[in-house]
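subagent[fold] <- orchestrator: predict structure for attached chain, return tokens only, no commentary.
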Amino acid sequence: MKGNEQCAVFRHMRDGTEQDWAIIGGEIGPFAKGLPGRLLDHLQLLDGDFGGFPVDRLTHSLQTATLAHQDGQDEEYVVCALLHDIGDTLGSYNHADVAAVLLEPFVSGENHWMIQHHGIFQGYYFFHHMGMDRNLRDRYRDVPELFKRTAHFCEKYDAAAFDPDAETLPLEFFEPMVRRVFAEPKRTLYKAAFEKIGRVSFRTTLRGNGRENFTRAQEDSDLGLLLLTLQTAHG
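subagent[fold] -> orchestrator:
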């Protein structure tokens, strides 16, 4: 026990019991619901961080999302635009990968790929000034639709979002979008594995060449441990 909090008692995972994991499972849901707030808090760490750019990183993020929104992109895309550089603080050498990992459970495969690769695609506009190959993005021309999508994101929104005089919507405008997009994951290994109440329905999603079929599971004990069945059918 830590204060009034009930905790599992194992010292090694192999010794964990159903009761231990029911306790842990009971904490997952409430904690996960706080993810949008934690993302918004972390995004605000970019405020005042210019890194030599014409605008600070928060303004750049907001301006990227503003441009996407004003151009008629859907809510999920706009949230991707907002969070595309959230990895700058902890991923100084791979910021695009950090953002993509955070977004992956909640967005389409196309949007995930776009954010994961935007760091290379944006290099078209400046790599040559740093002794690098600006055409590094050409290695991905064998996936033309993803190439076109990511190049468009960088040209129209990311690379264009460094104007201190441009209209930039505040973070409060985008907050409801973030909360909706991150309300429920589309795919994750742990989805609803430890929810305590009721009946849970899982979405069917397509990913790569496989289909993830998440079946319904009912509460099967007074501890509230739900069984999650993951079936993968290829073809």
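orchestrator: received. Logging for downstream: The domain at 36-181 is CATH 1.10.3210.10 (Hypothetical protein af1432). The CA atoms of residues 79 and 174 lie 8 Å apart.
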